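Help: why these numbers?

___
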Amino acid sequence: MASLGHVTPQSMHFAEPLRLRSGAQLADYTLVYETYGTLNADKSNAVLVCHALNASHHVAGTYEGVPKSEGWWDNLVGPGKPLDTDRFFVIGINNPGSCFGSTGPMHANPATGKPYGADFPVVTVEDWVQAQALLLDRLGIRTLAAVMGGSLGGMQALSWSLQFPERVRHCIAIATAPNLSAQNIAFNEVARRAIVTDPDFHGGHYYEHGVVPKRGLRVARMIGHITYLSDDAMAEKFGRSLRAAELAYSTQEIEFQIESYLRYQGDKFSEYFDANTYLLITRALDYFDPARDHGGDLSRAMARARAKFLVVSFTTDWRFSPARSREIVKALLDNRRDVSYAEIDAPHGHDAFLLEDARYHAVVRAYYERIAREIEEGRDDE
């Protein structure tokens, strides 16, 4: 299948304040985004793709002159791919608080002239969705043919269906959950402690000291990465393989290949990701819980949704297990919503939603074929 080729990010400035769930507001901000494909005459083929924790607006295609710059969902989005940009107008938006161009902790706080650092306001999934909706308003897109996301992106897709039920025709939620389990929150908390106890953190104002809390970021990424893989995938890839022929009998040296892999992932992550952004995003994950305002009853929460749904899970994903997806499906069925569910038998754990699995991609492709037919036939079953 063809690639999108080179793509160029765009930015949009908002002088109006973004009022946040916390009661704070982002007075003056910019969002970075990319679009692929062509918006049709009646603007009925727009698809918003929401990004996960360490991703961005760069969903597909490459940047000219930048090697290995494929978008994070390049295997799924593009000409002739399951989300076919020859038929759909796809939008990726970088969320506020990110470190990939949209206004975040490293940008200047208008109140002080210094980088926000730890003073950047806490943002939620709902805040991100609000910001995305404002950008779509500027693009003249009132209704989305679909909103899609995996993991944290799936939470944003669910939130879209509840915050703006009249603006979403289809919601595609992949490898996600209606909220984090206590175990998930625990992993996030350990990762955050690793960052804030790094001597280079300086209370979140490390930009002013010209340092980066890389040690904390490395550990945070190593913790996160363990949760993205399945036990079987780790066993198959690394097993108990040693780096050297003989044990070194050291508590500090790398002995096992899995240790080497995790340290490599941690080092790489600490070179490009921002520590304050990591704190903000993991907290947004912790907070997401649409059932909270309904006494913990997810079915009552999902009663607002009007979209049709595709929910996809992976058998070896223990971070957001299939059981969590089935909670979403049940809540939708309790409200007699149109929902399709696919549980893909894949060995890769949570990361499976980013990989090219033929069965998984076939499910997504078939669902977008359905959406395309509805658009072509001008149907609006709502």
Q: What stands out?
A: Residues 60 and 71 are 4 Å apart (CA to CA). Residues 358-377 form the longest helix (20 residues). The first strand starts at residue 10 and ends at 14.
